[in-house]
Every structure is written in structure tokens, then in C-alpha cells.
Amino acid sequence: MSKGICMQQVTLRELYDRMYEAMGPQGWWPAESKIEIILGAILVQNTNWKNVERSLANLRQETDFEPAKIIQLNQKQLIALITPSGFYQNKSKAILGIFRWLEPYDFNFQEVKRTFGKNLRKELLSLRGIGEETADALLLYVFDEKVFVADRYAQKLFTYLGVEKVTNYRLLKQKVPALSDFTLLQAQEFHGLIDEFGKRNLKNETAFLCSFLADTKLFIPIK
Predict the structure, then answer these.
(1) Whether the predicted model's global pTM rises above the 0.85 cut
(2) Which of 114, 110, 75 is nearest to 95 (CA)?
């Protein structure tokens, strides 16, 4: 893939800097509140954002994203609102499950974070319908943890950047070090930058080779 190209080796932070300079701020996650982020993170599973927007519009009209109103919905009522996102049986159970989990803390996300500490990710993963990607997205955008979201765009990008054996979420997650030299905002932007880059430049190898990262090789120290 890199034949004829003079490769430049960069660290994870240098990769972020290069992407930010070329693409600018992404303003991710697309939401006005953390409650909306939770809903979007569950609804976007196995579908596209346009379908999520339709479901969120229904939920906004019905509940104004007020947690108390969302919890008062029964599963049948919730399904009617989120049908555009598909997989509505599982997603309705996941939404009601996490909202009921948060209710005893009055949806005070910092209190939840203090309560579970380093076990917060494990606790999220124990909830119905919350997988690794969703858990990390919630940690990053709701609980203000500087975590890396190793989604499919990240797996594909890092493979093109010369990182070996990162063909699934867990494998890439294990290789990426803690984002200690990132601010929270930078960690959030990094996920947005990777996904936006993926939409534009990761359709195939030819598209990637025409991008501004074609001459880049990522160096990740062994953990």
C-alpha cells in the first residue's frame, strides 16, 4: 500500500494534531444534552444516524428528553417512538434499563462516576444492550472519561496506518494506550475526527491513498 510513498511515523497525539489541523473541530457528539447522548448511543446501534434522528425527534416531542417522562413510558409506548431506528425490542429494553439504573442517582452523572470509580465501565457492560463500543461512548461523552472508542472506522484507519492485528474492537482497545496527553475535549474530538475521516476516506484503499494521511504510519508503544 505504501510503495513509493515516503512514510512519516507519528504518535497517537501527533495523529490527532494532524487530523485536527486538516479537518477542524467536529463538535461531536451531535446532541444538546447528556440524556440525548445516552439515547443516541443506544439507538445508533446497527443503523445510521438519519434513522436515529427520526427516533430522537419523536422522543423529544413526547418527553422533551426529561428522564422522569422517559421512565414513565412503558415498553410499548417507547417502541412506537423509536421504531425508525430498528431493533426496537432490544433498544427499548436497553433504554429503560439504563434509565432505571441511573434513576436512584437522580441522573447525577458525576455521582455515578464517584460511586463506581474504576468499575464504571464494567458496570455499564453489565447493563442489557450496552456493549463495548456503547459503553466507551458513554464514558467519553456522558461520564467525561478520556477513553478511546475502538469502533470500525478506527480499526480500519489504524490498519491502513500500519498497526497490525486490530481487526476487532477488543484487539484495538488493548493496543491503544490511555489518552493521558489528551484533554477531555481532545479525546472527544479524536473520536469525531476518526469517524468523519472514515466516512470520507475509508471506503476503500484507493480513497485512503488519496487522503492527507496516505504518507502516515502510526507508532503505538507496546503496553
Answers:
(1) yes
(2) 75
Structure-block grid coordinates of residue 10: 507519528
For cell 510503495, what's the residue?
Answer: 3
CB distance 173 to 148 below 8 Å? yes
At 138-194, the pLDDT tens digits run 999 999 999 999 999 999 999 999 999 999 999 999 999 789 999 999 999 999 999
The x, y and z cell numbers of residue 147, run together, are: 477513553
Length of the chain counted residue by residue: 223
Q: What are phi and psi of 149, to 5 degrees?
A: -95, 110
Residue 110 has a CB neighbour count (10 Å cut-off) of 10
Asked if 218 and 15 touch (Cβ cutoff 8 Å), the reply is yes
